[in-house]
Write a structure and sequence with these properties.
6 helices, alpha/beta, 18% strand
């Protein structure tokens, strides 16, 4: 069973399962700040780590495996949260991508209510031809993607040209892959994280 890092109100009716990105752990500064912003919107989150990342805490330095190799670990995390009320799944970058690959099977089984991707990696940076969108074209699970307009894994102009399922909503924020804005945007990272958390709360509140 994965070790969960819980944030937000304990009596929340909905739990959001969150996996980390490829290179940073579940308690990175970014993940901590995002969890705090979500908690401020009354959202309870449960963060966990894939085995390759957890191994780094004891001196291991395994690179992240292919996303497909992590599907079983994500399913196991969902299993461990059974009985926690309404469940949403998602994650940051790689974590969100993995969640998106199991979302429809879990949604069809009535086990989750929706999918959240915080900075979806639509393609590797510098390789816009290597799209990771095939499974998103016919996604049935309700999904929200919070994406930076200048994200090198998928900018606003690029993503607007993709064929994506109508079940997917995208909240655009002026920023990069970490939703970090430029100085001339006139806002700070915390502003974008707060806006993303508000978008998540509004979206989750509209789910069945």
């Amino acid at each position: 069973m994965p070790d969960f890092l819980l944030s937000g109100p304990r009596d929340a009716s909905t739990t959001l399962l969150l996996a980390h990105g490829a290179g940073a752990p579940m308690d990175s500064d970014w993940m901590n700040a995002m969890a705090e912003a979500l908690a401020g919107q009354g959202i309870r989150s449960a963060r966990f780590e894939f085995a390759y990342m957890a191994a780094r805490r004891s001196g291991g330095r395994k690179p992240p495996p292919r996303a497909e190799a992590l599907l079983g670990e994500y399913r196991a995390a969902v299993d461990a949260l059974a009985g926690s009320g309404r469940l949403l799944i998602g994650g940051k970058s790689l974590g969100g991508r993995v969640a998106s690959m199991v979302a429809d099977e879990l949604f069809s089984a009535g086990r989750i209510a929706g999918l959240l991707c915080l900075g979806y990696p639509f393609h590797p940076p510098g390789s816009p031809e290597k799209l990771r969108t095939a499974h998103l074209q016919d996604l049935r699970c309700a999904a929200l993607i919070c994406q930076g307009t200048r994200d090198p894994f998928g900018t606003h102009d690029e993503v607007m040209g993709y064929r994506l399922s109508p079940s997917i909503s995208i909240r655009w924020l002026p920023g990069d892959h970490d939703l970090k804005p430029r100085k001339d945007d006139g806002i700070k990272l915390g502003d974008n994280l707060a806006a993303a958390a508000k978008a998540v709360a509004d979206w989750a509140g509209g789910l069945g």
